[in-house]
Amino acid sequence: MTAADLQSVQLIERASFATPWPPHAYRQELEANRLAHYLVATMAGDVVAYGGIWLMVDEAHVTTFAVHPRYRRRRIGERLLLSLLDVAADRHAREATLEVRLSNLGARRLYEKYGFRPVGIRPRYYSDNQEDALIMTTEPLAEPGMRARIARLREELDTAPAPSAQPDDEDAPGDAGAGGPRPPGAAAPHAAEAGPRPPHAAGSRPPGAAT
Fold this sequence. Notes:
Elements: H1 6-16, H2 23-32, E1 36-43, E2 46-56, E3 59-67, H3 76-90, E4 95-101, H4 105-113, E5 116-122, E6 133-138, H5 144-159
């Protein structure tokens, strides 16, 4: 993700989350947060999804994750999640973690597929409706079993048909979401009904993060 992507990212943010981060939050993350690593997925030159992690000591915390509503259900979110795990492994993170709404079964199934497992609950984590968050964490990323899982899933994606660049006419529920820390000045964590966001501030994100 670069500053040139921020207008598109903000459009997806507003379409995906009940309490979106303000426009300056991502810019601050890119320019001032040395813990942050953000990626975008593009199709035909357009940003259709984005996600980020904070690398805190030996942990990669998924801070935000969303796919444009018109491009969901094409495994774009799955490819993006795999890329975030690659960044985590490349930066020598021991494990990856995130928060997800208890009610978001679709997102939970995606995360479980990629080796995340429930490890705890954050009560009343989401500011919009006080819903609890399920904390999910991977096995150590360097362990043979986790590496074999990622290799198998990568092969599945590599051999699957490429996602269509043609947007759907109707918005469809699908991959999006987050529920952890957020950049300074961002709104409280909310998760686009599908996943994690940066921890502290308003109950979710690392020190210095905002919600």
